[in-house]
Predict the 3D structure of the following.
Amino acid sequence: MTSGKLAAGSVFPAIDLPVLGGRRREIAKPAEGFEWMLVVVYRGKHCPLCTTYLQELNAALPELNAQGVDVIAVSADSEARATAQMAKVSPRFDVAYGLTIPQMARLGLYISDPRNGMDVEAPFAEPGLFVLDETGALQIVDISNVPFSRPNLEWIAKGISFRRGPMKEAPINGTYA
């Protein structure tokens, strides 16, 4: 399946998903008290690298929140699978589940089929990371087709600080027309 990639500077699509704990949430909208949004798409319960990355996200969360950045992690997993994986993560951020194939395509994510021997029930999204500013515009877009290629979250936090500080008035990178 092919999908169009989201362009830097474009507005992130409105996608509403269930969140562990019984609520629903539009993943592009920061919670009250935050201006920016970090959306991390992870592969799902079958991926040990995702579990490690989400644990690293927990460690980066105080710095991100201090900068006014809300965080949500998203996968195509069912509620039961997301709950089981988060028992190993103990997230201090919202975790949304049930991302559909059309939603994955709207986000420009790579999509993989279940493979023999993998604990996967359905097609799933490969990793993606999106940082949205207060207008919903994409400041940072990072997608991968493999689980071992992901941005360093400490550097993402530093980059957000730079974009919100000295580079606030600069054009969004990658928007040359």
